[in-house]
Amino acid sequence: MKKIINLRTDYEILDDEFEDICKPFDDALDKWFDEHKYLIDEFVAFYIAKGIEHDALWSGAFSGLLNASVETLSEYFNDKNINRKRLNKLLLNKYNLKLVQEKPMVFERIK
After folding, report:
1. pTM, full prediction
2. Does 79 score more than 90 pLDDT?
3. Over the Cα atoms of the chain, what is R_g?
4. What single string gives the DSSP state of each residue in 29-84?
């Protein structure tokens, strides 16, 4: 059974709507990050080790180094570096979602 998912088009929400709409989403993201924090930690450690190995780190605050490594990670994962085939397979197999149109986005829930 397929069901088209209508994405939101109301870009302004009230404060009380935020609690019902965005807060659960933010909580789910926080939970995922807590459970998968080792992925970020692994990358940050790799960034530091390779930076030292290649003599490519400059003196400064450690927090700046941490922020730079996370920025590098987020800059890398843009549209062109995402494996669309693997992403679509993951959406379908793990979350029962299929992207049927990219612009505007249209998803189907597959059950």
Report:
1. 0.73
2. no
3. 19
4. HHHHHHHHHHHHHHHHHHHHHHHHHTT---SS-HHHHHHHHHHHHHHHSSGGGS-H
